[in-house]
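go over this:
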Amino acid sequence: MTMRTLLLITAATFGLIGFGCSSSGGGGGDTPPTADTTSPTIASASSSLTKTSGGDAYQSFSATVTDNRDVQSVTVAVSGDGSGNATLSGSGSSYTGQVQVTPPILGTKSYSYTITATDLAGNKDTETGTFTVSGNTPPSTGGAPF
């Protein structure tokens, strides 16, 4: 057996060379899969704030995400004081999740967020937004001095 014959046998064994065979037995070669170059689409994204009686605050996020093949993950990154990250969970095209945020003692605090959808090929789409969290309202003294 020559080296060339050995290389051809090895290449055919590992599917590197097609000989006109297909899994359907039809005789034509299989069409190689096409690369996925299409990014997922975040069709809509929204967020809403929930405060608990204990003073905690949670920003909930929802996103509608579609892809020509499969979505691998949908994440949200929140930036600002006391911010965090979360992986949104879901099925089909609906994804939800929440991030705990720190409300200020007084006044308001601004945050920004980025929702990122990634498909199995690594293509990405992002959606950005902002939200504010209000702190406590100072007690009223009724106009009387202390």
Summary: Confidence is low (pLDDT under 50) at residues 1-24. The beta strands are 41-51, 57-66, 71-79, 85-91, 94-101, 108-119, 124-134. Residues 96 and 124 are 18 Å apart (CA to CA).
